[in-house]
């Protein structure tokens, strides 16, 4: 399946068209770390991380699912060798914590952007995650409401792509 993100703010897949949020920096072909932009292109969908303490049962999907723990993070420091990778906390480099107080990271789909190879400064932690209630812009991710994200995941399998822009 190919998931499409169109620049008028919708995710389209199968027979669904769902509202989404995207990066505060808009859509960019040449994304840079910290620009708040959502990268344009076609990318594979990777692992699904989820809060098992908040979501039972786990998301039903053909993608690999991994429960989030309080010690999981994502390195967003372009000067560190762990840049744009899942890390264990505590960690010496700048990073995002995946275990959050809000619901935004209750479900995270790793978009395989800047992964093979990883290029320092080209952007990190590009996910599909839960949107804030007002669909306010993200730091570069795509965000859907929880129900929409669960519908999307139910249709996804290993090898599926997301096309942005």
What does the model show?
Pathway: Cell wall biogenesis; peptidoglycan biosynthesis. The active site is at 129 (proton donor/acceptor), 141 (nucleophile). Residues 1-165 form the L,D-TPase catalytic domain. Keywords: Cell shape, Cell wall biogenesis/degradation, Peptidoglycan synthesis. GO terms for molecular function: transferase activity. By secondary structure, this protein is mainly β. It has one domain (2-164): L,D-transpeptidase catalytic domain-like (Beta Barrel). Helix content is 6%, strand content 34%. It has 1 helix and 14 strands, in the order E-E-E-E-E-E-E-E-E-E-E-E-E-H-E. The chain has one helix at 146-155, and strands spanning 2-6, 10-13, 16-19, 27-28, 38-39, 41-50, 65-67, 72-75, 86-88, 95-97, 107-111, 127-130, 142-144, 161-164. The strands form 3 sheets. Strands 1, 2, 3, 6, 7, 11, 12, 13 and 14 form a 9-stranded mixed sheet that branches. Strands 9-8-10 form a 3-stranded antiparallel sheet, with no helix packed on it. Strands 4-5 form a two-stranded parallel sheet. Strand 1 (2-6) and strand 2 form a beta hairpin. It is globular, with a radius of gyration of 15 Å.
Count, helices:
1
Classify the beta-strand content into a percent band: 25-35%
CATH class: Mainly Beta
Q: CATH topology, what is it called? A: L,D-transpeptidase catalytic domain-like
Tell me the domain tally: 1
The value of Rg in angstroms is 15 Å
- Which outline best applies? globular
Q: State the secondary-structure class.
A: mainly beta
Q: Report how far the terminal alpha carbons are from each other.
A: 17 Å
- Main pleated sheet: 9 strands, mixed
Order of helices and strands: EEEEEEEEEEEEEHE
Give the rounded overall mean pLDDT: 98
The counted number of beta strands is: 14
Percent of residues in helical segments?
under 10%
Low-confidence stretches: none
CATH architecture: Beta Barrel
InterPro entries: LD_TPept_cat_dom (IPR005490)
GO molecular function: transferase activity
Domain L,D-TPase catalytic: 1-165
Pathway: Cell wall biogenesis; peptidoglycan biosynthesis
């Amino acid at each position: 399946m190919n998931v499409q993100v169109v620049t008028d703010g919708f995710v389209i897949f199968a027979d669904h068209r769902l509202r989404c949020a995207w990066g505060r920096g808009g859509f960019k072909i040449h994304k840079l770390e910290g620009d708040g932009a959502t990268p344009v292109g076609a990318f594979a969908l990777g692992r699904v991380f989820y809060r098992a303490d908040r979501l039972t049962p786990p998301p039903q999907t053909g993608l690999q699912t991994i429960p989030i723990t309080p010690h999981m993070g994502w390195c967003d420091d372009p000067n560190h060798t762990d840049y744009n990778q899942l890390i264990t906390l505590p960690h010496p480099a700048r990073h995002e914590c995946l275990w959050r107080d809000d619901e935004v990271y209750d479900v995270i789909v790793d978009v395989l952007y800047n992964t093979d190879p990883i290029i320092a400064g080209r952007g990190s932690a590009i996910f599909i995650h839960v949107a804030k209630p007002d669909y306010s812009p993200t730091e570069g991710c795509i965000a859907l409401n929880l129900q929409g994200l669960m519908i999307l995941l139910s249709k996804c399998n290993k090898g599926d792509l997301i096309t942005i822009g």
